[in-house]
């Protein structure tokens, strides 16, 4: 992996956590301009990037992620942020939900959850902080998702966080069969035909976040 984080203490902590978990840190960047060259040089299995980095502390890390995905479309990216950056999150997700994660830094302290999210993103899945999803959805009005029932929206929100059917069932205290039925209804209402079965979950998440 390639990591970009300007806070030295957090950076060293992340490196220790990653190596202890059996991952290889191939490159580390402390400023925005360092990120893209590192990603293009190492072409890592995943990039872990802070949003705001020197010199401007605005969106250097995210801009590097967006540029890298133009050059390496399949590059999984896990973005870390101190706060929910709605515009930045939406821009990253607009490029496709495959292999994308956006977590608040507070989540790092929940080591098992963080490592699970990391592996999910590296495998091409999604991992979105619940607070990120809530903030993004707060500004959606009159979108195609209005046809969904409250339960279907709950299921789709958990899908957006990258959870599988079994975990969704546990979270909502319903059966996996019910989850499967709700997801089928979501696909139908969003106009995602069976021929897209390999990608419908990702397409549904995109519709949810970018409608």
TrEMBL record:
Cross-referenced InterPro entries: CheY-like_superfamily, NreC/VraR/RcsB-like_REC, Sig_transdc_resp-reg_C-effctor, Sig_transdc_resp-reg_receiver, Tscrpt_reg_LuxR_C, WalR-like
Pfam families linked to this entry: GerE, Response_reg
Modified residue annotations for 4-aspartylphosphate: 50
Alphabetized GO MF terms: DNA binding
Ranges of residues in domain Response regulatory: 1-120
Classification via CDD domains: LuxR_C_like, REC_NarL-like
Entry keywords, A to Z: DNA-binding, Phosphoprotein, Transcription, Transcription regulation
Xref: SUPFAM superfamilies: C-terminal effector domain of the bipartite response regulators, CheY-like
GO biological process assignments: phosphorelay signal transduction system; regulation of DNA-templated transcription
HTH luxR-type domain span: 141-211
Listed name of the protein: DNA-binding response regulator
Organism: Streptomyces inusitatus
